[in-house]
Amino acid sequence: MQHFVCIDGCGGESSNPKVCETEGCKREGEPLIPCTCESGLHEGAKEKGDTEQE
Question: What are the distances in angstroms from CA 54 to CA 3, 36, 41, 49?
Answer without folding.
Answer: 23, 22, 22, 9
